Amino acid sequence: MTQALRNFKESTEQHVLAQIWAPVKNGARFVLTTSGQPFVIDPHSNGLHQYRMVSLMYMFSVDGEFEGELGLPGRVFQQKLPEWTPNVQYYSSKEYLRRDHALHYNVQGTLALPVFEPSEKSCVGVLELIMTSQKINYGPEVDMDLRLIKSARHLRLDVYLALLLNQICNEGRKNALAEILEILTVVCETHKLALAQTWVPCMHRSVLAFGGGLKKSCTSFDGSCNGQKGQGVTGRAFMSHNAYFCPDITQFCKTEYPLVHYARMFGLTGCFAICLHSSHTGDDDYVLEFFVPPSISDTYQQKALLGSLLATMKQHFQSLKVASGMDLEEEDGFVEIIQTSMSGRLDLRLECI
């Protein structure tokens, strides 16, 4: 493992600290620690050296029930899923316990990946990559890690970033996606939306993977996309086979919406998602996600835009329909609204438009 980390450091031009978190027994409980574990560090970055010393002082629960006990390594270990951020400043202190230290030592982009034994499903550790620059797309780092970890016997990384391009695309799916692309294009051009994209279920897990989209801004946002069932607006639309709207997705926490840091970075707020089926592909799910211009923040204006957006979609549907069977022309009870409370905390009660 140490040699694999060294190979990674030598193959990247980033100022990076790569360290392993592993479970050890602390009294009656198991905790994650990086003390005594393999690590590599940029010899020219004093900030990363200091941050490594800070990390040595921390231990994170592997089975804690509260977010503050887990921290970033604990969440990745417990959920067996990767977690990353373009900049740790978008975390709260509860979500990222080392936040103040990170800001002090100019730590920005961070990626954490679960490490597994090849023959087992149990997680045996967490690989954490820490950088002093803001990072949007971690695809190259993930690909490099996968190749290097394979050189370390007895270990493997499970990274569930299954993109649509890696799945077999039959003629029916090609036709469905062509129709979806036309709808995304027409809706964005008609209603001046900055970003629209498509999500599809990963074949191997309950994960939604980015399947293509149309963007006029937010460069590289789509390269950062994946999510669990029920997370964010798209996850809820997927679970219910219906449509959801949230006026301000930046109010989600990281565990509720893994891409919230990117939304804050790019100034994305209002988000509408709808789950569709196509007659070309039967029960295959496609979740279309649209981001409302930030200038439209008034509730009345947002609802008017949603009505117009749905009408535009209806005009261009050929093989597509709402997965729940609901007719787009039914006004009452169609779009469910995820409200934000007056205190700024997310209120997950749903209201019908």
Describe, in short, the structure shown.
The chain is an alpha+beta fold and 353 residues long. Helices cover 30% and strands 27% of the residues.
Explained architecture:
By secondary structure, the protein is α+β, with helices and mostly antiparallel strands. It has 2 domains: 156 residues, Beta-Lactamase (2-Layer Sandwich); 189 residues, GAF domain (Beta-Lactamase, 2-Layer Sandwich). It has 9 helices and 17 strands. The strands form 2 sheets. Strands 9, 10, 11, 12, 13, 14, 15, 16 and 17 form a 9-stranded mixed β-sheet that branches. Strands 1, 2, 3, 4, 5, 6, 7 and 8 form an 8-stranded antiparallel β-sheet that branches. Helix 1 packs antiparallel against helix 5 and helix 6 packs across helix 9. The radius of gyration is 21 Å and the shape is elongated. The N and C termini lie far apart (54 Å). Pfam families: GAF_NLP. This is NLP1-9 GAF domain-containing protein.
What are the main properties of this structure?
single chain; 353 residues; alpha+beta; Beta-Lactamase; 2 domains; eight-stranded antiparallel β-sheet; 9 helices; NLP1-9_GAF
Distance N terminus to C terminus?
Answer: 54 Å
Question: Low-confidence segments, ≥5 residues, pLDDT <50?
Answer: 158-168, 204-212, 216-224
Helical percentage: 25-40%
CATH class of the largest domain: Alpha Beta
Number of strands: 17
Helix-strand makeup class: alpha+beta
Based on CA atoms alone, the radius of gyration comes out at: 21 Å
User: Which H/E pattern describes the elements?
Assistant: HEEEHEHEHEEHEHEEEHEHEEHEEE
Number of helices: 9
What is the number of independent domains?
A: 2
